[in-house]
């Protein structure tokens, strides 16, 4: 059996999620990243077919792609709630708790997820883990002011925080903040860790998305797509 390449897997998961969850007349949250990209393109196809959709973007990059492809993007402040959001993730555990933010969009993604009735995650099977933190670092968005002190507070939680760089300069998020990528050996107690991180002065948002996802659509190397639900 031929194995699907990573791009084909992302496309398969994203298209299945849009086809299953996005209905005419909905307000839809558009995620950020290389997997969510295929969901945005599928939403654009639905709009061309005549679906009346209002969309909320989780990043400037996503908004640009959506607008270029004929999708109506509205301000999150102008909607009461979002029916469904289709977004990617960096790790997904068996309870659908997530690590997100390797693409730098965690803050807007979390605000959009919190306003969403049905948060649907699209990933390939490599993102499924038994325990969060085993594969990737946990991104934490922090204020630029005093960021070295904030990083010290993060280090006290048992990780090695590394300031994210881009082109020789610190990476700056859509919110104008820095991001520290925090490698933990493993995150055994994600709810405790999130509470502890959230109390550190200077932390804007952390990339743990706990009890937020309702379903994960997972593409596999053998070409199949399965679904995890809470
Ligand atoms: O900040 C970025 C987001 O959380 C992405 O959804 C996440 O990093 C997954 O991105 P990708 O689908 O490109 O692996």
From TrEMBL:
Pathway: Carbohydrate degradation; pentose phosphate pathway; D-ribose 5-phosphate from D-ribulose 5-phosphate (non-oxidative stage): step 1/1
UniProt record, GO biological process: D-ribose metabolic process; pentose-phosphate shunt, non-oxidative branch
CDD domains xref list: RPI_A (cd01398)
Binding site residues for substrate: 32-35, 87-90, 100-103, 127
Enzyme class: isomerase
Reactions accelerated catalytically: aldehydo-D-ribose 5-phosphate = D-ribulose 5-phosphate
Gene Ontology molecular function: any one: ribose-5-phosphate isomerase activity
Assigned EC number: 5.3.1.6
Protein function: Catalyzes the reversible conversion of ribose-5-phosphate to ribulose 5-phosphate.
Assembly: Homodimer.
UniProt record similarity statement: Belongs to the ribose 5-phosphate isomerase family.
Protein name per its UniProtKB record: Ribose-5-phosphate isomerase A
């Amino acid at each position: 059996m031929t194995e699907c390449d990573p791009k084909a897997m992302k496309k398969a998961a994203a298209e299945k999620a849009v086809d299953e969850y996005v209905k005419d007349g909905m307000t839809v949250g558009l995620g950020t990243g290389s997997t969510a990209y295929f969901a945005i393109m599928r939403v654009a196809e639905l709009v061309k077919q005549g679906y009346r959709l209002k969309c909320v973007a989780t990043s400037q990059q996503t908004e640009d792609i959506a607008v270029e492809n004929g999708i109506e993007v509205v301000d999150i402040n102008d909607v009461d709630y979002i029916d469904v959001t289709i977004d990617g993730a960096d790790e997904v555990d068996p309870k659908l708790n997530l690590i997100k933010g390797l693409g730098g969009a965690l803050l807007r993604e979390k605000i959009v997820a919190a306003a969403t009735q049905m948060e649907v995650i699209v990933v390939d099977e490599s993102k499924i883990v038994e325990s969060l933190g085993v594969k990737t670092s946990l991104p934490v968005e922090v204020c630029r002011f005093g960021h070295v002190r904030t990083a010290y507070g993060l280090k006290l939680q048992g990780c090695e925080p590394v300031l994210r760089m881009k082109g020789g300069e610190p990476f700056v998020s859509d919110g104008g903040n820095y991001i520290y990528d925090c490698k933990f050996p493993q995150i055994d107690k994600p709810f405790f860790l999130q509470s502890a991180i959230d109390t550190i002065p200077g932390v804007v948002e952390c990339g743990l998305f706990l009890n937020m996802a309702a379903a994960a659509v997972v593409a596999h190397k053998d070409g199949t797509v399965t679904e995890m639900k809470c």
